[in-house]
Structure formats: structure tokens, C-alpha cells
Amino acid sequence: MPIEISPFDPSSASDSDFEDFYKVLIAVMALDHPEQPMLTLEECAKQIREPATALGPIKRWAAREEGHIVATATAKFPAHENRHLTIVRVIVTPDRRRQGIGTELLRAMLPDLGADGRTVVMANGVKADASGESWAREMGFVRTHAYVRQVLTLSRVDPALWRCPVPDGFRLEQWAGAAPGILLEEYASARTAILDAPNGDSSLEFENWTAERVRTHEADLHARNVENRVVVAVHEASGRVAGITELELLSNQPSRGFQQDTAVAANFRGHGLGLAIKGAMMRWLTADNSAVADIITHTAYNNTHMIRINHALGYETTAVVAEIEVGLAELTKKLESY
């Protein structure tokens, strides 16, 4: 039977569409990322209906056979930094791979990929050296960076690992939601410390944080019912925020936490602040939230210092995922030749 490809609109999709969408997702995750906890159907549908849009607009497509979805695609269009990029994800149910469906999805997406003058197509979270990356290479994508996925399973970790001392001359502050006004400017400045994190050959640009940008980000999280917890280290003598760590709790995934950025300003490194603030985060979380069973994070594969900190806290490395990209012009020529 012929494959039919069309846009997928979550606002008008039927329950059976979401069930098909979910079946494709769990089949792909079971093969490519079996170590990663899986969403329920209800969690998946809510995530699709209420996506994180702070990055920018999102478009989706579905490939159907006899009315049932067998593959899906997503394109994200960054609205701040990275306006040269379109970030894509193409997934095909394992039993229908190597039949040209992913290529046809990519072809259907092509007219949208250059929106607003974008010139580079990127995919991230691709299982390294697996079939998806192999297919992407055929389309002209190259690996520009890689990350290790690390998981902290609370039931397997001794909480004593999180009792990390605060270095002399520093104090810790914590909040959920909006940063206190007295720390806002310093907090925004400290967040930019992530700018010198290892980034390989990726053309992805990290966010340039300002106080206004922080408030916009906080408002977006609040609108999506995401609880954002923050722990910072403050240098007592100067009042500067020397290090930050963030963790997100999603209402549609109550058993899971997502460790976000951890950064220490360059002139405060070497004191053990990263371990202290991440340890404090775990003590805080487990003291008042018994629903969370595991924490997931991704760390640049060559960021050996942060990987070592995570291992010290009980994280286990479970997979390597690739970041890949191709110029839009090159991708267009490649698809024209197929």
C-alpha cells in the first residue's frame, strides 16, 4: 500500500492518531533507547498537545499506511539564538525501516526547513552508531558532537553520596519557580557560564542569558506547569552567584526529574562547587518529593569533569547520543538525487 504523508496537528488529531503515534514512539525507544524510562500514552499525548515552545515554533508530520501512522517527524524552529538552524527528528517504526519512508518524510518537510532563511538542519538525541545515524549519514548529515545519557535511579543510590560540603566562603541558596529579585542579575550572569562548555564542531549556540530572558523562561515553564528547581552557590565576599544547577519536574511525568544546566563561573572553578550544588539539589528533592524515581541528564561526552561529578552522585552512564547536522543546500541536492 502507498505511504501517505501529511502534517500532524495535535489540536485536531483523533485518539486513534495519538495511539498510533505512541506505538511508533515506544517501538523505536524499545529498540534504540531501551535504558530510558518510557512515557505512558497519556503522558505522551499531553506532551505533544502542550509542547515546550520557548525554543520556538514546532511542526509535525505523520506517514500513514492504510490510515495508520508508521512514522513521524518533527521540526523545531529556534526563535532566539540558532535562527540559522532547524532541529528535526524523524522516527520510523523498526519493522518499516530501510523502505524509504524516512527519506520521504524528510522530503515532505523540506519546503519548511528553510523557514526565515535557515541554512542548517540538525538532529540531536540520535543513538550513536545505530541505524538512525547510519541513515542520516546517507542523507549527508555528519556527527558534530555527542553526549552521554546518565541516569540516577534513587532506589539504587546511597543518599550519603549527596552530603557534599559547601566550600569555605560560599553559601547555597535555593528556590522553585522565579529567582528572587535580589539575585536575578547575578543568576542570569552565572547562567552564561555554560557558554564555554564543550561543544565539539556543533553550530548550536548556547543561550545568552539576561534578567529579562530568565523571567521569560520562568514564565514559559510556569505556563506549562513545569516546576523548575534551582540551587546556586553565592560567593560571600562579593555577593556573586558563582555556580548554578537546575532541575525540572514535569507534571505529566511525575516519577522522573530532568537535570538541566549546571555551570560554575570560570574564576570560581576548582573549589568543588559543582558537587556541592548538585548534592544539595538531590537532598532538597528527596526531602519533599517521594514521587520521583529517577533523574535523567545529558552531558557532553568530553566534559570529563561533569561526568565524574555525576558518577560521584550516583549517576550511571547508559548511552551515547549523537548530534548531527547538514547544510540545507546539501540536503536538498541529496534528496533530489534519490
Automatic annotation (TrEMBL):
Pfam families: Acetyltransf_1
Residues annotated as domain N-acetyltransferase: 3-167, 192-336
Coiled-coil parts of chain: none
Keywords per UniProt: Acyltransferase, Transferase
Domain of life, source organism: Bacteria
Protein name as catalogued: N-acetyltransferase domain-containing protein
Lineage of producing organism: Bacteria, Bacillati, Actinomycetota, Actinomycetes, Catenulisporales
